[in-house]
Design brief:
Length: about 375
């Protein structure tokens, strides 16, 4: 049996009655954009993240743009972010009118490297107004260090938590660790809608009020436009679906961790493969990513065995034409990661037997060399 990279049909089949009821309720209500369903999910998600405010928005990219705009980060401001992340993190910076300043990542975690961040602050005359900490693959970025370094320089920390719903450290959960947390509920994320959706989280009532205005055409009262805003509202159908799914998130994340443990146990002996460094309870394994210099060959072998795998991401952001900078210093750790990473199937509906089948295929690949 082929093993896919995700199985949303299985996830939805298990919740079918509740999802049908939620969708039916919204259709019957005749209210589709913002409104009571969205407010209900916002309360539930804020409580889950341990913050006072969560606001539903159209997608994760908009969440980042809204966060930057609410913080008045814009023209002539630099925003530090990892050189190795999904393009949306940098896109948001550019679309908010600010300039991305890429920082290399840690060789082991592939998250923002605090030493490189410190060097970015020290080595530039450019005013870095904000840092976007991306919790790549579901592992928290080193928030304590990032908050301390940013704090020393009066910069704001925004979390890109699009891959880390439910990840936590001793200070709290993703989304509650910086000034604003930005989430995506793209269907394959750890908490996914039935379409595009996102949220921003914060403990700052003023920022919440400003983002409420910005996501809805800059109006505080209907047709009274205080600032130039956006149309980035969450719709009621997505909120109703998310509200059904949220109570299952911790169980799904626990299953992702169990799959990661199984992979780790089965693959530990293979010298050709670098496994993700173990993390305490804070990692939610949006992706289980291994590394090998023979990555493309491993991917072809898995494909021949009917096993899906994916490359997140094949290039660093400075290597993308969209974000290329003429004075780019090079980002050795990010570049090595881009050349070596491969995500193996890892989602809550994946059974142990399928994980063992993936491991057997990898061992077969390994034994040929
Ligand atoms: C998915 C993702 C986003 C963007 O979310 P969308 O909802 O697709 O706009 C941003 N950052 C990271 C790290 C992501 O994985």
């Amino acid at each position: 049996m082929p093993i896919p990279g995700a199985d949303l049909r299985a996830q939805h089949a298990a919740l079918r009655a509740e999802l049908d009821a939620a969708v039916g309720r919204v259709l019957a209500s005749g209210s589709f954009v913002l409104g009571a369903e969205v407010e209900q999910f916002e309360r539930a998600f804020a409580s889950y993240c341990g913050v006072s405010h969560a606001l539903g928005v159209a997608n994760g990219t908009d969440a980042l743009i809204l966060a930057l705009r609410a913080l008045h980060v814009g023209a002539d401001d630099y925003v530090a972010l990892p050189a190795f992340t999904f393009a949306a993190t940098a896109e948001a910076v550019v679309l908010a009118g600010a300039k991305p300043l890429f920082v290399d990542v840690d060789a082991t975690t592939m998250n923002l490297d605090p030493t490189a961040l410190r060097a970015a602050f020290a080595g530039t005359a450019k005013p870095i107004r904000a840092v976007i900490a991306v919790h790549l693959y579901g592992r928290l970025a080193p928030m304590t260090e990032i908050l301390a370094i940013a704090g020393e320089h009066g910069a704001i920390v925004i979390e890109d938590a699009a891959q880390a719903h439910g990840a936590h450290n001793l200070q709290g959960r993703a989304g509650g660790l910086g000034r604003i947390g930005c989430f995506s509920f793209y269907p394959t994320k750890n908490l996914g809608a039935a379409g595009d959706a996102g949220a921003v989280t914060t403990n700052d009532a003023g920022l919440a009020a400003r983002m409420t205005m910005l996501r809805d055409h800059g109006q505080r009262e209907k047709y009274i436009h205080t600032v130039v805003g956006m149309n980035s509202r969450l719709d009621a159908l997505q909120a109703a679906v998310l509200d059904v799914k949220l109570p299952h998130l911790d169980r799904w994340n626990a299953r992702r961790r169990a799959i990661a443990d199984l992979y780790r146990g089965e693959l530990a002996a293979l010298a050709a493969l670098r496994l993700p460094a173990p993390a305490a309870g804070d990692h939610v394994y949006h992706l289980f990513v291994v590394r090998t210099p023979r990555r493309d060959e491993l991917q072809r072998h898995l494909a021949a065995c009917g096993i899906a795998s994916a490359i997140h991401y094949p290039r660093t952001l400075p290597q993308q034409r969209a974000f290329a900078q003429s004075d780019s210093p090079g980002y050795p750790q990010a570049e090595a990661a881009a050349a070596e990473v491969l995500a193996l199937p890892c989602y809550p509906e994946l059974g142990d037997d399928a994980v063992l089948e993936v491991c057997a295929a990898i061992r077969q690949w390994d034994s040929r060399h």
